[in-house]
Design goal:
Largest sheet: 11 strands, mixed
Low-confidence stretches: none
InterPro entries: PsdUridine_synth_cat_dom_sf, PsdUridine_synth_N, PUA_sf, tRNA_psdUridine_synth_TruB, TruB_C
GO molecular function, one term: tRNA pseudouridine(55) synthase activity
Structural class: alpha+beta
Organism: Bacillus carboniphilus
Number of helices: 8
Mean pLDDT: 91
Protein name: tRNA pseudouridine synthase B
EC number: 5.4.99.25
Shape: globular
Strand content: 35-45%
CATH class of the largest domain: Alpha Beta
CATH superfamily of the largest domain: Pseudouridine synthase
Number of domains: 3
């Protein structure tokens, strides 16, 4: 099996747990996930299988869409519902939907964001959560993220001197939605945390395309997938595409350099392009050759 399983990750499992379970079901060690989801978070978690593991980075870089709930009035150690309460300030003012909608719109665009202390980002070779568990606060490098869109999804409702509401956010990779929840609270003048989160899309993959582990076992037992599986070629259809003839296709399998064409001449060094044969199969991923700007070199040969 070579491709991408579109898993609907359940609550209570880490992304690594999901990889291990998929390996057992599929009887293969070649399984890798395409973006960590915390145990309390459910939703879209594509798993690359077989030769599909070669394209993990191209799915990791995809934008993400989440549906989240923020609770205003309480902050936690982890910035989400799993942490211990740090601060509680009763919300006594009236906050209406129009104010929240305007606030969410104000957060759209490019932002600077520090990763939470309870996260897997590494500082000086150690993951931040390792410092956090020992009560050590360290400087965290700011990252630039981008919020493409934020929309209010629910009414604003009271919960014991707090206010909560749900929103949908479409954002760049590396965005911490729980930190966005804290930022929303700060703009309203209150502590806050993310009280629920679900990933509803990863790149072009939507949650209604995904399958559970139970369905994965069923489909694998039948020897065919009715849904929830993408070939390598379909999984990277979001990349720029170059179609070549059969003669060149045979040479691409051996890692040949390709001459740039009119459609690839303006590629930058970091740009990549998916090279397909005339039958719709992706053969390799290419990028500009640093030693000769007129050529493309293979970075991943997929067959």
């Amino acid at each position: 099996m070579d491709g991408v399983i579109l898993l609907h990750k359940p609550v209570g499992m880490t992304s690594h747990d999901c990889v291990m379970k998929a390996r057992k079901i599929l009887h293969t060690k070649k399984v890798g996930h395409t973006g960590t989801l915390d145990p309390d978070v459910s939703g879209v978690l594509p798993l690359c299988v077989g030769r599909g593991t070669k394209i993990v980075e191209y799915l990791l870089n995809a934008s993400k869409t989440y549906e989240a709930e923020v609770t205003i009035g309480i902050s936690t150690t982890t910035e989400d519902q799993s942490g211990k309460m740090v601060d509680k300030v009763p919300v006594i003012q009236t906050i209406d939907k129009q104010e929240i909608e305007q606030l969410l719109k104000s957060l759209q665009g490019k932002l600077k964001q520090k990763p939470p202390m309870y996260s897997a980002v590494k500082v000086n070779g150690k993951k931040l959560y390792e410092y956090a568990r020992k009560g050590i606060e360290v400087d965290r490098p700011e990252r630039q993220i981008e919020i493409y869109n934020m929309d209010l999804l629910s009414d604003i409702y009271d919960k014991e001197d707090t206010l909560s509401f749900s929103f949908r956010v479409h954002c760049s990779k590396g965005t911490y939605v729980r930190t966005l929840a804290v930022m929303i609270g700060e703009k309203l003048g209150y502590p806050a945390h993310m009280s629920h989160l679900k990933r509803v899309a990863s790149g072009t993959i939507k949650i209604d395309e995904c399958i559970s582990f139970e369905e994965l076992e069923q489909f694998h037992g039948l020897g065919q997938f009715q849904k929830g599986f993408l070939s390598i070629s379909d999984a990277i259809k979001h990349l720029p595409k170059l179609v070549i003839n059969d003669t060149l296709a045979e040479k691409v399998k051996n890692g040949i350099l390709l001459s740039k064409t009119d459609e690839t001449r303006e590629m930058n060094q970091d740009d990549v392009i998916a090279v397909f044969n005339q039958h719709g199969t992706c053969l390799a991923i290419y990028q500009s050759y640093i030693k000769d700007d007129h050529l493309l070199k293979p970075v991943k040969v997929l067959i």
